[in-house]
Amino acid sequence: MTPHLSKTGAELLFELISQRYERGSILITSNLPFDEWTETFGTERLTGALLDQLTHHVSILEMNGDSYRLAQSKARQKT
Predict the structure, then answer these.
(1) Of 10, 27, 60, 64, which cross-links 5 as Cys (Cβ 3.0–4.6 Å)?
(2) Does pTM surpass 0.85?
(3) 33 conformational bin, left if phi > 0, alpha if psi -120 to 50, beta if neither
(4) What Gene Ontology terms describe what this protein does at the molecular function level (predicted)?
(5) Residues sharing a CB contact under 8 Å with residue 49, sequence separation 6 or more, in sequence order
């Protein structure tokens, strides 16, 4: 199940990103593809506006592979 932000939380995050837009760098990590972000942010309109700002002048690094934290957790459980 995808965690959902409250309407207020989503709006505050959007406001933060809007204030940082073209003023400084933002680093965001997610295990969800962009087309699933609406489930978290609640509305297509807010998600679209957020992604519009985040993907302008962007470098997207897609990393596929085993999770470092999961591997460490499994290693600790074995000992």
Answers:
(1) 10
(2) no
(3) beta
(4) ATP binding
(5) 14
Token pair for 49 = 């506006």
DSSP code for 25: -
| Type of residue numbered 13 | L
Task: Pull the structure tokens for residue 41.
Answer: 């942010």
Neighbours of 16 (CB within 10 A): 11
35-78 tens-digit pLDDT: 999 988 888 999 999 999 999 988 888 888 888 888 899 889 98
DSSP per residue, 43-77: -HHHHHHHHHHHTTT-------S--HHHHHHHHHH
Tokens of 61: 């690094």
Judge contact between 5 and 43, C-beta under 8 A: no
**Domains, the chain, ordered by start:** 7-78 (3.40.50.300)
